[in-house]
Specification:
This protein has 317 residues and is mostly beta strands. Among the domains are: 84 residues, lipopolysaccharide transport protein A fold, CATH 2.60.450.20; 39 residues. The protein has a 32-stranded antiparallel beta sheet, with no helix packed on it. A hairpin with a 4-residue loop joins strand 16 and strand 17. It is rod-shaped, with a radius of gyration of 43 Å.
Length: 317
């Protein structure tokens, strides 16, 4: 070994290694020829730096903060190892991306600067979360339940995608409305909390159903161009036939059916209890009663103030 001494620096040499001792800066430098490596020991900052020329890599060991930093020049990447928090951070300059590996919580976080996006990978819950700053949207991917959830802050809306049931649910906070899209049955359901109303859209049968918490249900049949109302309180059903311009009322309590014919301006009542039918003709101002039990027909003519009875057994005027 060869030793040389200067005023503030000393040096030791052997065949494959040179060591420099800098007294002023309290620094030691090792030069390793075999591995083409240089190591600097900074006593003042309690830091060690390794320069690997073959791998074109620099490693810093910070004893005070218990941190190691690797600088990879070939891949333009920096890696930080934080022992205290058991965390690793990678800085990728080429893709402008930062990745954090949290061992304690078994979580990985990616920061994408180009797309202004953050992605979290939670291994314990098997969940991935994306934070999109540009669109102010958060997306959660739940692998265990095979479900995706989107949180839209700008529109104050949440969307759930259920892959197992092939269903999508939208929660609209502004309008206090929930919408379900059922792909298997090709059905959409809207829940309106403000009006306390539920609406079903059946695409296969081209039918719409409204459920009103006022104890009323309305069906809209597009194929037959018909609307049906079910009134639970009065136990009544009303059908609106647009093609024939006719309305039919079914009264369950009185066991009565009423038909309103707009084209002929006629109303017909069917009384099941008394087995009687009554026709009201507005154009001729005439009422006709058909009594099936007594086999009798009665006509009331308001214009001529006349009543006519037709008895099938005997005819009497």
């Amino acid at each position: 070994m060869i030793r040389s001494f200067l005023l503030y620096k000393s040096r030791e040499h052997n065949a494959n290694q040179t060591i420099e001792f800098h007294k002023l800066t309290n620094k030691t430098i090792e030069f390793h020829k075999l591995t083409n490596k240089t190591i600097k020991f900074h006593k003042l900052t309690n830091k060690t730096i390794e320069f690997h020329k073959l791998a074109n890599k620099t490693i810093e060991f910070h004893k005070l903060t218990n941190k190691t930093i690797e600088f990879h020049k070939l891949t333009n990447k920096t890696i930080e190892f934080h022992k205290l928090t058991n965390k690793t951070i990678e800085f990728h300059k080429l893709t402008n991306k930062t990745i954090e590996f949290h061992k304690l919580t078994n979580k990985t976080i990616e920061f994408h600067k180009l797309t202004n996006k953050t992605i979290e990978f939670h291994k314990l819950t098997n969940k991935t979360i994306e934070f999109h700053k540009l669109t102010n949207t958060t997306i959660e991917f739940h692998k265990l339940t095979n479900k995706t959830i989107e949180f839209h802050k700008l529109t104050n809306k949440t969307i759930e995608f259920h892959k197992l049931t092939n269903k999508t649910i939208e929660f609209h906070k502004l309008t206090n409305k929930t919408i379900e899209f059922h792909k298997l049955t090709n059905k959409t359901i809207e829940f309106h909390k403000l009006t306390n109303k539920t609406i079903e859209f059946h695409k296969l049968t081209n039918k719409t159903i409204e459920f009103h918490k006022t104890n009323k249900t309305i069906e809209f049949h597009k194929l037959t161009n018909k609307t049906i109302e079910f009134h639970k309180l009065t136990n009544k059903t009303i059908e609106f036939h647009k093609l024939t311009n006719k309305t039919i009322e079914f009264h369950k309590l009185t066991n009565k059916t009423i038909e309103f014919h707009k084209l002929t301006n006629k109303t017909i009542e069917f009384h099941k209890l008394t087995n009687k039918t009554i026709e009201f003709h507005k154009l001729t101002n005439k009422t006709i009663e058909f009594h099936k039990l007594t086999n009798k027909t009665i006509e009331f003519h308001k214009l001529t103030n006349k009543t006519i009875e037709f008895h099938k057994l005997t005819i009497k005027t």
